[in-house]
Structure formats: structure tokens, C-alpha cells
Design goal:
393 residues; 8 strands
Length: 393
């Protein structure tokens, strides 16, 4: 049984064999993965030790204290938070061995090819087609809102493989090589002026059947693992007190007394308390994950994350007055990550508008909470038993 003492011993051995100050960053990360200290709850040989998930914090604290490099998780959030747990649950042994190590150390960045122009909130209505040809699948279609596609080597992809069955039943899940012929990535410029999102066009892209995750037609079930982990990753990230968006506002309030008003004070207090409640709720949710896969509760956390970010960023702009309207640069850029706390208030205000869309729209998440958490009756659906090819579009 791996316990705290054993993990500390293993971490000390890693640090002794690979001193952070004298070891190349990638070499250290590879050694950490091979020692089972990347995600300790994963199986041995796949970056873990079959240990309780809660013990990861022990390893992280020891390595942080020693000044060891991390794997820059913000740069590969989709890979770490969504692709990896899906591969672990549904992948073959060959797929796990091939993808998990370079994913965790950051050598290979991942993106998500799910949403389409005609299938955003109703994801199961997607129309991208994958047709079997021998040992390969030929994929044609268009995906949209693909964060980081311009920096990614791999993508998790769902496509329709059987149009003759109801929409949820005819979907299959694949791993797509973003460097393959027929994959075209185009930037989508956002309200911030940047293009962290993309649209992706797939034209006769050939995907080997060996890169299929799960069974043919089981893609919707596999995708639920991805989506549940996505909502936890977005809404349940670990933060210190006053971490996230509330931090810069509280700092400005303390340092700029001339900006204060009674009304702003009351609103700040309310949002500060709500941010702290959300942070502690996220901690509780992570502890629940120790017992198994994330469930629909992650939808509630993601809802709270979106609402709070938008209200807090709005308050910050009001607090700063004219300064809050300033913006550094409207030049089209294609960033590697989203930096909410390292930019100015104007950026935070504009970028937070997307929080209620990405990772599941707030309206859809409200339905999930109502039906799957509260047990309320589901909304009437007339397309449940209709073949996808017969649906009105």
C-alpha cells in the first residue's frame, strides 16, 4: 500500500537522482513520469502507482518545495484534463503507452474536435462523417471553437459513423493527428482581438482504426467521460484563497482607497464570499473524485465559475472607472494559453464573456443539473427515436 511516507521516499529518490537545478526540464519530467509520480492514482507504468488520488498533493508539495519544474498544465489543459482520463478509461494498452507519457510531459499538446457550426449546444446532432475503408476511416466535416488547435499535435474527435440510427447512437470517438493531410486550421478572432479559438476543416482525413477509442457507435458514451472531466477541469481547478479573478479586484481595492464607494464595497464583499464558497466546493468535489469518475456535479461548478468570472470582471471594470476601459493591444495574436490574472482588467472583462459558452453553455448545464443532480423531469424530446438522417436540419 502506497502511503504518505512511501511517496515522500520515492519523491526524495527522484530529486536525488535528477536534481532540478542540474537536470534538463523535459528529462526531469520524463523521470517523474517513469517514477509513477505524475498522477499517482494512475496505474503503474502509466505515470502512477495505483495510489489514492488524494496523495497527489503530497508529491506536488515536495517537488514544489524543491524547485522542480512542472509540466505547464495551462498549456495542455485539454490533454491533461480531458484526453488523458478518456484514454485511461477506454484506450487499449497500446494507446495508453503511446499517448499518455508525451501528453503529460507536454511534448504533445491536445485539442478537442467536438462542436460544429450546426451542433454546439446539441452536440449529438453533429454531422462530421467517418466512413470505414478497410482498416481506416475517412473523415469529412467541420469543427469549430477549437481551443489551441494551432499548437496541437493530437485531437480527440467525435464523428458520425452511422446516420441510420438515432443521433446519440451513431457516433464514434477517434484520436486525430492534426498534422495529417486534409486537416486545415483557421483562426477565429475573438472579442479580445486574439485567436485562441479555431475552426478546423477535415477533408478526406484518413484515421486508422487503431486510433479509435471505444467501440464503433459508442462515441457518445465515451464523450461523456470527456465532458464530465472537462467541466471539473474548468470549474473545479485548485485555487488558493483569493485565487482566480477575485484576487486582482481585492488587490486593487486594498491598494486604491480613492476608488472605493459604499455600493462597490457591498458588491465586492458578496462576490468575495461567493468566490470562497465556490473554491471550497471545488475542493470538496475533488475529494469526491477520489472515489471514482466525475459525475454531473461538475456542471454545477462550471456554472458557478462562469457566472462569478463575469460578475467579478464587471465589478473590476466599474471599480477602475476610465482605467478599466483601457486595452493593451488589439493585434491579432494566437496565444498558447488563456491568462486571466496576468493581463489587464479590460482583457478579463472581455474574455470572461466566453466562460458561459465554452465547456458547455450555461443553459445546457442548467438542464444537466436539473435532470441529473436534482432529479427533475427531463424536457420533452421529439428526436430521441428518430434516425439522424431523418432529422430536420
Amino acid at each position: 500500500m502506497t502511503d504518505v511516507a512511501e511517496l515522500k521516499r520515492r519523491t526524495a529518490e527522484l530529486l536525488a537522482a535528477h536534481p532540478p537545478t542540474d537536470t534538463d526540464r523535459l528529462d526531469f519530467l520524463k523521470a517523474r513520469f517513469d517514477a509513477g509520480l505524475s498522477w499517482v492514482h494512475y496505474p503503474e507504468g502509466l505515470g502512477g502507482l495505483d495510489a489514492p488520488r488524494s496523495l497527489q498533493a503530497v508529491v506536488d508539495a515536495e517537488l514544489e518545495a524543491a524547485g522542480a519544474p512542472d509540466n505547464d498544465p495551462r498549456r495542455n489543459g485539454i490533454g491533461l484534463g480531458m484526453a488523458a482520463p478518456t484514454i485511461l478509461k477506454y484506450g487499449t494498452e497500446e494507446q495508453k503507452q503511446r499517448y499518455l507519457r508525451p501528453l503529460w510531459i507536454g511534448e504533445e499538446v491536445w485539442c478537442q474536435l467536438f462542436s460544429e457550426p450546426g451542433a454546439g449546444s446539441d452536440l449529438a446532432a453533429l454531422g462530421t462523417r467517418a466512413v470505414r475503408e478497410g482498416d481506416d476511416w475517412i473523415v469529412n466535416g467541420q469543427k469549430v471553437w477549437t481551443s489551441g488547435a494551432h499548437n496541437s499535435r493530437w485531437a480527440i474527435l467525435i464523428a458520425r459513423t452511422d446516420p441510420n440510427v438515432p443521433k446519440h447512437a451513431g457516433i464514434t470517438y477517434f484520436i486525430c493527428d492534426m498534422t495529417d493531410p486534409g486537416v486545415e486550421v483557421r483562426p477565429l478572432r475573438q472579442i479580445t482581438g486574439e485567436a485562441e479559438f479555431n475552426e478546423v476543416f477535415l477533408t478526406d482525413v484518413r484515421i486508422p482504426d487503431s486510433r479509435r477509442l471505444g467501440g464503433i457507435g459508442d462515441g457518445w458514451q465515451v464523450a461523456q467521460t470527456t465532458l464530465n472531466n472537462e467541466r471539473v477541469a474548468i470549474g473545479g481547478m485548485r485555487l488558493p484563497r483569493e485565487g482566480g479573478m477575485i484576487g486582482p479586484v481585492a488587490k486593487t481595492w486594498r491598494e486604491r482607497p480613492e476608488l472605493r464607494t459604499h455600493d462597490l464595497h457591498q458588491r465586492l464583499l458578496k462576490l468575495w464570499v461567493e468566490a470562497e464558497v465556490a473554491r471550497l466546493t471545488g475542493e470538496r468535489l475533488r475529494q469526491q473524485l477520489v472515489a471514482g469518475q466525475p459525475g454531473p456535479e461538475g456542471a454545477g461548478m462550471k456554472l458557478a465559475f462562469a457566472r462569478l468570472n463575469q460578475e467579478i470582471s464587471g465589478l473590476e471594470v466599474e471599480l477602475l472607472g476610465e482605467e478599466g476601459l483601457l486595452y493593451d493591444d488589439w493585434t491579432l495574436r494566437r496565444p498558447e494559453l488563456v491568462d486571466f490574472t496576468g493581463r489587464e482588467a479590460g482583457y478579463r472583462y472581455l474574455r470572461a464573456k466566453g466562460n458561459s459558452i465554452e465547456g458547455g453553455t450555461s443553459e445546457i448545464l442548467l438542464n444537466i443539473v436539473a435532470e441529473r443532480v436534482l432529479g427533475l423531469p427531463s424536457e420533452p424530446r421529439t428526436d430521441k427515436d428518430v434516425a439522424w438522417k431523418d432529422l430536420a436540419r
